[in-house]
Design a protein that fits this description.
The chain is of the alpha+beta class. It folds into two domains: 153 residues, Immunoglobulin-like; 69 residues, no CATH class. The chain is 19% helix and 30% strand. The protein has three helices and twelve strands; from the N terminus they run αββββββββββββαα. The strands form two sheets. Strands 1, 3, 5, 7, 8, 9, 11 and 12 form an eight-stranded mixed beta sheet that branches. A four-stranded antiparallel beta sheet has the order 2-4-10-6, with no helix packed on it. A hairpin with a 6-residue loop joins strand 11 and strand 12. Helix 2 runs antiparallel to helix 3. The radius of gyration is 36 Å and the shape is rod-shaped. 31% of the residues are buried.
Length: 260
Amino acid sequence: MGRLGRTWAITTVVLAALGDAASAHASAFGLIGHSGKQGAICNECHGGGTAPTVAFSGPDTVAVGATVTYHFSVESARAAQRAAGFNVAVSGGQLVILPDQGEQLIGAELTHTAPKPNTDNVAGWDFSWTAPTTSGPATLFGAGNSVNLNGQNSGDRASATTFAVMVVEAVTPTPTATPVPPGSTNTPVATRTRGTPGGPCAGDCNSDGTVAVNELVLGVSVALGTSGTDVCLAMDGNTDGQVAISELITAVASLLDGCP
């Protein structure tokens, strides 16, 4: 082989080595575009290992514009594949990195800064996502590569998954009034005062300063067990959860003689 031939052969070997080193370096520090969103995952460059189990966990319903936290895990199927990397993308909204997770945001996608060692065969990352400002379905795309850290692309394998989220309009709870028995003039329970036998306004269910016949009827219904004391707390003078005959008599006295 002449000098030109040898030079060409050496150059080819060097370029191939540089290409392999560059590929390994890029993977070690994370790549984007391999979450499965565009169809590609890490198996285009890595192979020979056993595919891991990958999964998202987090809320599947999120209010518009809200920021929530998710977890992405990569579970190895082989002890030799002792670390993992990841790539996550989303159909809308904004991904946000969290501290101490070993992750980075490149463009609009998340990936690792270095392969994360497994703990009990699992590596994982927490991250946040801010939902779009309009309601509708959204999808998280994630791929995890389970690797053996041999410095090569062999003995590794990746899997991909998706996670569906429904973005909904925020709902402000509407306060509801406390139910009042039909035909009663009583105010809600929260505003009633509790009377005491022989004391002021015993039996005055609606705290208006007098005792009416309909309030006595409520007291009788409590005494018979057909209603709870919450319909007229002022009847239950001794706060024992019942209305006794003596308490009804006290209420009748309030009806006839008026409250002090």
